[in-house]
Design brief:
Layout (H helix, E strand, L loop, with lengths): L2 E5 L2 E3 L5 E8 L7 E7 L6 E6 L5 E3 L7 E6 L4 E6 L8 E9 L2 E4 L3 E5 L2
Parallel strand pairs: 2-11
Antiparallel strand pairs: 1-3, 3-8, 4-5, 4-9, 5-6, 7-8, 9-10, 9-11
């Protein structure tokens, strides 16, 4: 059974840090482009960061310099290190695996940035 399971979300104060994990099962991420997306209340889902099979990364402009995406193919896991968190980063964060024609999504983990 194919699954992407996110973890590491929670409540953090502004300026704080969190690391999210996305553990894959039922397939091997080494041949998939992986990405993190988020959806804030009342807003559309948006791309946070992506990492290619070869390790090339790209970020949404508002995340550059604060967030870092990485992958550990041996552990079949993708990570999102988030620093200098802001209240506007509050959202459900989901990971996605794309390996045409397959496209898998996790259910997400909630990140709340609040004092």
């Amino acid at each position: 059974q194919v699954q992407l399971v996110e973890s590491g979300g929670g409540l953090v104060q502004p300026g704080g840090s969190l690391t999210l994990s996305c553990a894959a099962s039922g397939f091997t991420i080494s041949t998939y482009a992986m990405s993190w997306w988020r959806q804030a209340p009342g807003k559309e889902r948006e791309l946070v960061a992506a990492i290619s099979v070869g390790g090339y990364t790209n970020y949404a402009d508002s995340m550059k310099g604060r967030f870092t995406i990485s992958r550990d193919n041996a552990k079949n896991t993708v990570y999102l290190q988030m620093n200098s968190l802001k209240p506007e980063d509050t959202a459900v964060y989901c990971c996605r695996a794309v390996g045409f024609p397959r496209d898998y999504w996790g259910k997400g983990t909630l990140v709340t940035v609040s004092s």
